[in-house]
Amino acid sequence: MKNKRKVLVTGGCGFIGANFVRLLHSRYDAWRVVNLDKLTYAGNLKNLEGIEEGNTYRFIRGDICDSELVAGLFAEEHFDTVVHFAAESHVDRSITGPGAFIRTNIEGTFSLLEAARQAGFADNGQGSQPCFLHISTDEVYGSLGQSGYFTETTPYDPRSPYSASKASSDHLASAYFHTYGLPVRITNCSNNYGPYQFPEKLIPLIFNNALHNKTLPVYGDGRNIRDWLYVQDHCEALVEVLEKGRNGQCYNIGGNNEKQNLEVVTLICDLLDKKLGLAPSGQPRRSLITFVPDRLGHDRRYAIDPTKIREQLGWQPRVTFAEGMEKTVDWYLANRPWVSDIVNGSYQKYYAEMYNNILNTHIK
Length: 364
Ligand code: NAD
Ligand code: DAU
Fold this sequence. Notes:
Blueprint: E1 6-10, H1 15-27, E2 32-37, E3 57-61, H2 67-77, E4 81-84, H3 91-96, H4 99-118, E5 131-137, H5 161-180, E6 184-189, E7 192-193, H6 202-211, E8 216-219, E9 225-227, E10 229-230, H7 231-244, E11 250-253, E12 258-260, H8 261-276, E13 289-292, H9 307-313, H10 321-334, H11 336-343, H12 346-354, H13 356-362
Parallel strand pairs: 1-2, 1-4, 2-3, 4-5, 5-6, 6-11, 7-10, 8-13
Antiparallel strand pairs: 9-12
This protein binds nicotinamide-adenine-dinucleotide and 2'deoxy-thymidine-5'-diphospho-alpha-D-glucose.
């Protein structure tokens, strides 16, 4: 992309958002990226350590539901691109407390779409600009049986409060394209893994427990299937959608990489055994696996058919699961303080001190 963009990234301090901001920063040094993030429990400024504020990067601590703040940012920055990651993202939390999911994922997306519309952020008929890229999930399609794949035309059938809130936000984004001509593109991606993933999600949670010789909780029979994609491959796909995608279109993104949860958990155990030696008990870390009661409404299988993005935009994943898991385990081993700061809560003190004044003005 030769053009310069002014990009609003929401949720840039989370797992995928931080990897995406890092990709833009390394590749498009003339772009201006404004990162709007509330710094919930899932946001961590350390995910963007090394990226300094200046002409090409600005951080705002704020809530996407704060429509005054969001409208002010559009007026001030004149964005031509929005990449909207900010969300409550963890299915288990949506089961125990759905309210925050409804607010952030639905009302927050509405607030951004409305600010973009009010700012006159409409299709200018010149191809790639402007663009409102709404980042969503394959979970909106529900659960597959033993065969078949999710395509862009699979009917929506969300089954958790999280996926229902994401489905709702997808429908809102799509409605803003059809009704107002807002240049919306939507991506629905499968399970990501890699650096900076919050250690409540399966892979970093199992890594951390296995490292500390704790039990490894596997829900149900451990045979649920997810289609895993290395996070940098996801971020590359998003750049392709920005660069070459078409407004009003949805793109499924996936790794053609279905694994049962038990396979993933045993792989992490085996990699740690190989790199660190056996657990202190002298047993392989697999012996820590403990079957626990199943997640309520646990979707059995997800699998993406990525034909559209491969054929229309030329994207395909570059990192195999074996390579990606090795890189991921190495990253978590090399960044143990990043994990332990989260587990002991000190990462929040770090940003609370840094952004105390902003917290008071921008968080309602
Ligand atoms: P995450 O939970 O790691 O990060 C979410 C970020 O959003 C955090 O930095 C958090 O502080 C911020 N945030 C939350 N509420 C906010 C609000 N009201 N205002 C401003 N910022 C707020 O999430 P993730 O795993 O990086 O997922 C990012 C996006 O990608 C989400 O929309 C998710 O639905 C989607 N997605 C995730 C995956 C996956 O495997 N993780 C797969 C497909 C799609
Ligand atoms: O498919 C995309 C989705 O992937 C994203 O939209 C979500 O934001 C993201 O969180 C992820 O959802 P999952 O529910 O699939 O991810 P999670 O890591 O929570 O769980 C992966 C699988 O592992 C799932 O079948 C539940 C199981 N699991 C999870 C945890 C945390 C366990 O067996 N034990 C656990 O402790």
